[in-house]
Amino acid sequence: MVQAKPKLKTFDDYLAHCKDTEARYELTNGELIEIPHGSDENVIIARAMDLALSDLVGFRRVRSHQLAIEMPGQPKNRFPDITVLLPEHLEQLKTSGQSAIRLDMHPPMLVVEVVSPGPENHRRDYIEKRNQYEWRGIPEYWIVDPENQRVTVLFLTADGYEASVFMDNTVVVSKTFPDWTLTAADMLST
User: Fold this and answer.
1) Range 76-89 average pLDDT
2) I need a labelling partner for 152 at 20 to 30 A (CA). Which of 7, 42, 86, 189 fits?
3) What domains are defined for the chain?
4) Rounded to an integer, what distance in angstroms lies between the CA atom of residue 50 and that of residue 26?
5) pLDDT category, 6, cuts 50, 70, 90?
């Protein structure tokens, strides 16, 4: 017997439904869309980013692959590969008991996506997520692209995201993390 997926009306319905599952889903037009697991290369790159960012802000403020960010529009949430939280988020997450940044909370200070191979993933990370992260007011968004061997840093301005692209042995410049010392090649090595 095939069990129908539930139709969810709100982000609260989504959180209640997903709290006891290991799978990660995005809520799109009331439907649960399972997020596929990344390649081994992408997981290793994300883990390296997690460690490097944890050295800068502390491990409690860095989340990898497990924190939902509520979004305006559709899909209603995203699961960035890496999310760097503001200090205030720690208490808010503890109080709420949810692993989610809600619309009524300040946006995280940084999200990082490691692009999986394929045109659909490229479009999602470079266009769809870029638009949603910009609309959500996330100050900085990094796109780490192993296939094209580049790191794109998007910094939020009054006019939207401003992009800088880094390749090879060029140190990646971040306004949020001025002490960042890794090059694009460092960030892309596995």
Assistant:
1) 93
2) 86
3) 39-188 (3.90.1570.10)
4) 22
5) low
